[in-house]
């Protein structure tokens, strides 16, 4: 097949995309229309938690497609209830609302916190967020994000999101006032360059928010669902947040997201929150398959051991090439290059022959690794061998 056969000009321009059309994938490999294969360490942007076209997910999708696709969000359905039960059983939360994207789940978290503030805190509405954070692309979640430049692209912003510095509790404390209703953070900043909040900082935040009677919201759209080696990244710090959002990995590649809260925080009244596709059986059936596989005995231990393996190998590579080390949790890791060669590496790795490798430079001076959680150590070795040959060619 020829690239010119595809009417790509009909697609609205939003970003520079390489001249490749992907047609199919299996596990850690994805194939383009010319039959070239790529070892995939992006996996749909940390989305395909079980790799491409996982058998359990295919079965769940096929089976549900023949049973019931959408009865309307005004009714209960079986997969929606089963998945909610699975999530509450495996977390510290009691209530779940399903959404279609991470941004939509975060919008829900912001609304829930503001509603709680209206009810119990004299109309408090400000949510303290962090520099370099990423919470999505709706107007409110862009305003909540600390991404440079995002305060002006679609100005004016949604007000009420003062910014603190990650891992600096004094910077959070300074922003707290009578209007503050919550603090919201990613336990590991993903788009910001894989920067973990320290265990100490998470504990200080929990203590500070309790003291001031404000909510602690964790955006686990990227860090959740096994990515950090525990089912949820907040579990690494031994605290219990009030609200959590999930996206990306929960659907294993299909559009599914969730907003979870403690029972006493779930203060929506009839009509306050909704959405046509919320909890639709087709997507929640897939989510149920994904979370069941992630919570199967031994699975998360495997993620932790492969995460340790990747960490050790990245440190070796860093030492060998004079880079600046690595950081991350589980299978969300970054190699710190110390210079702005990330994008060059990404392009060369993709264009390698005969096989390519898909990598991501979340920032120009680092590479971010977000493979399938069931990636093998052999595939990790293969990725590293390919990366070494790209580095040799620079
Ligand atoms: C990707 C991401 C989002 C946005 O999710 P979408 O599904 O793209 O709306 C929000 N928060 C974090 C931490 C993310 O990584």
Automatic annotation (TrEMBL):
Keywords for this protein: Amino-acid biosynthesis, Aminotransferase, Arginine biosynthesis, Cytoplasm, Pyridoxal phosphate, Transferase
Protein name (Swiss-Prot/TrEMBL): Acetylornithine aminotransferase
For this protein, the record's InterPro entries field holds:
AcOrn/SuccOrn_fam (IPR004636), Aminotrans_3 (IPR005814), Aminotrans_3_PPA_site (IPR049704), Class-III_PLP-dep_AT (IPR050103), PyrdxlP-dep_Trfase (IPR015424), PyrdxlP-dep_Trfase_major (IPR015421), PyrdxlP-dep_Trfase_small (IPR015422)
Xref: CDD domains: OAT_like
Q: What is the annotated localization of this protein?
A: Cytoplasm
Pathway, per UniProt?
Answer: Amine and polyamine biosynthesis; ectoine biosynthesis; L-ectoine from L-aspartate 4-semialdehyde: step 1/3; Amino-acid biosynthesis; L-arginine biosynthesis; N(2)-acetyl-L-ornithine from L-glutamate: step 4/4
Positions of N(2)-acetyl-L-ornithine binding: 137
Name the coenzymes or cofactors required: pyridoxal 5'-phosphate
* Textual note on the cofactor: Binds 1 pyridoxal phosphate per subunit.
Molecular function per GO:
diaminobutyrate-2-oxoglutarate transaminase activity; identical protein binding; N2-acetyl-L-ornithine:2-oxoglutarate 5-aminotransferase activity; pyridoxal phosphate binding
Where mainly found? cytoplasm
Write down the HAMAP family for this protein, in alphabetical order.
ArgD_aminotrans_3
Organism lineage reads as:
Bacteria, Pseudomonadati, Pseudomonadota, Betaproteobacteria, Burkholderiales
GO CC annotations, alphabetized: cytoplasm
Residue positions binding pyridoxal 5'-phosphate: 102-103, 134, 219-222, 276
Q: Which PROSITE patterns did the record assign? A: AA_TRANSFER_CLASS_3 (PS00600)
**Enzyme Commission identifier(s):** 2.6.1.11
Q: What SUPFAM superfamilies does the record point to?
A: PLP-dependent transferases (SSF53383)
Source organism of this protein record: Paraburkholderia sprentiae WSM5005
- N6-(pyridoxal phosphate)lysine modifications at: 248
Asked if the record carries the keyword Kinase, the reply is no
């Amino acid at each position: 097949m020829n690239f010119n056969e595809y009417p790509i000009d009909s697609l609205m321009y939003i970003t520079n995309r390489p001249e490749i059309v992907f047609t199919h994938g299996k596990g850690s490999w994805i194939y383009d229309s010319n039959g070239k294969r790529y070892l995939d360490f992006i996996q749909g942007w940390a989305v395909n938690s079980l790799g491409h076209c996982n058998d359990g997910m295919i079965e769940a999708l096929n089976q549900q497609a023949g049973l019931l696709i959408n009865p309307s969000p005004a009714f209960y359905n079986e997969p929606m209830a089963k998945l909610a039960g699975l999530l509450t059983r495996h977390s510290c939360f009691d209530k779940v609302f399903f959404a279609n994207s991470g941004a939509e789940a975060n919008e829900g978290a912001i609304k829930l916190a503001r509603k709680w503030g209206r009810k119990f805190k004299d109309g408090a509405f400000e949510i303290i967020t962090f520099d370099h954070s990423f919470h999505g692309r709706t107007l409110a979640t862009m305003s909540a994000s600390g991404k440079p430049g995002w305060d002006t692209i679609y100005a004016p912003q949604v007000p009420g999101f003062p910014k603190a510095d990650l891992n600096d509790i004094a910077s959070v404390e300074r922003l707290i006032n009578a209007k503050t209703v919550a603090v919201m953070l990613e336990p590991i900043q993903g788009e910001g360059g894989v920067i973990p909040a320290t265990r100490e900082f998470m504990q200080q935040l929990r203590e500070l928010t309790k003291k001031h009677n404000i909510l602690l919201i964790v955006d686990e759209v990227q860090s959740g669902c096994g990515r950090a080696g525990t089912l949820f990244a907040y579990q690494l710090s031994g605290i219990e947040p009030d609200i959590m959002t999930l996206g990306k990995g929960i659907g294993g590649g299909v559009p599914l997201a969730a907003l979870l809260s403690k029972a006493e925080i779930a203060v929506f009244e009839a009509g306050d929150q909704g959405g046509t596709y919320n909890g639709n059986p087709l997507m929640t059936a897939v989510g149920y398959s994904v979370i069941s596989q992630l919570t199967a005995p031994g699975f998360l231990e495997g993620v932790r051991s492969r995460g340790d393996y990747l960490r050790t190998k990245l440190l070796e590579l860093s030492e060998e090439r004079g880079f600046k080390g690595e950081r991350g949790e589980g299978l969300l890791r970054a190699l710190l290059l110390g210079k702005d060669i990330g994008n060059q590496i990404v392009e060369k790795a993709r264009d390698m022959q005969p096989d390519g490798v898909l990598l991501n430079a979340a920032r120009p001076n680092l590479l971010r690794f977000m493979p399938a959680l069931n990636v093998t150590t052999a595939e990790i070795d293969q990725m590293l061998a390919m990366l070494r040959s790209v580095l040799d060619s620079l």
